[in-house]
Amino acid sequence: MSYLAFEPFVMCVVCKSSLTSAASFFQCVNPACGCRYPVVNGVPVLINPASETFQQTDFLSGEAPDIFFKAYKSPLRKFLKKVQPDITLNRASKKNYSLLAASLKHKTEVRILIVGGSIDGNGIQFLKNELGKDTVLVESDVAHGPNTNVILDAHNIPFKENTFDLVIAQAVLEHVLDPFLCVKEIYRVLKPGGQVYAETPFMQQVHGGQYDFHRFTFLGHRRLFRHFKQSGAGLVAGAGSAAAWSLRYFITSFAPTKTVDKAMSYGVNFLVFWLKYFDYILGQSKGSYDAACAYYFLGTKEEGYTLSDKELLLLYKGFRY
Ligand SMILES: [Zn+2]
């Protein structure tokens, strides 16, 4: 999707004024600010020039980094990556994306923001395939990738308030420095009645190298979204998947060097992946809520609503202390 579709909704991340676009850059309309944002291969880079975390120049090459999206060149590595079994049994995404698609079906001119959307998340085709032709789908990331149509920092989202009907953050909030600030930004850019969908890990080891900062329990995740009214929350993957992750990382922790770790990582999934199938047996067990691999939250922006911490404690689903 070309940026022309969402150009009317973007704003300057420095002064919050509107932006106008030229062929190779976006320009803030506020003369006192005058901030300019590059457009690289048709992708606007709407990063604050004063940001300490990301520099606009990081994105000028237009190349995808080797962090989450790995474009392997060697046929052998491509093959090994393809045949490697997934160690997570995701039992939520397809169902939730189908529910979201159904909830948007009767609406026109739907606007969706995907945060961390450089590549397709698990099950997202169940939403994407159902979108109307007039849908504005903004697939954002802090990296170029096959889907990225805007580069942004989720701590400082370059969209005006009340813009989106749905914001998706699938396996993203563990990778941001300040998830509370990011959720505040998501709330701001959602329309009243707009929905948020998030999947966030709990019992998963470090992935994405140095870009991995947080984990949430079921209640911790709910509190992160306390200004949203809940329409769904639960397990994405349970204790079986968590066991597979744990055993995988236990084995690779014996690797003496990065090269050995990399080599081991190709084979180790074959040794441990079967553990995830216990999630079929465990289902929604209480114990799984205390030991889950990941949780999801689906909520609605209702202005003035906040879940109190007293109400939060009543939502505990594990084995009560
Ligand atoms: Zn500005």
From TrEMBL:
Residues 149-197 form the Methyltransferase type domain. GO terms for molecular function: S-adenosylmethionine-dependent methyltransferase activity. Coiled coil: none annotated. It holds the Pfam family Methyltransf_11. CDD domains: AdoMet_MTases. InterPro entries: Erg6_SMT_methyltransf (IPR050447), Methyltransf_11 (IPR013216), SAM-dependent_MTases_sf (IPR029063). One of its GO terms (biological process) is methylation. It comes from the Bacteria. Keywords: Methyltransferase, Transferase. This is Class I SAM-dependent methyltransferase. It comes from Deminuibacter soli.
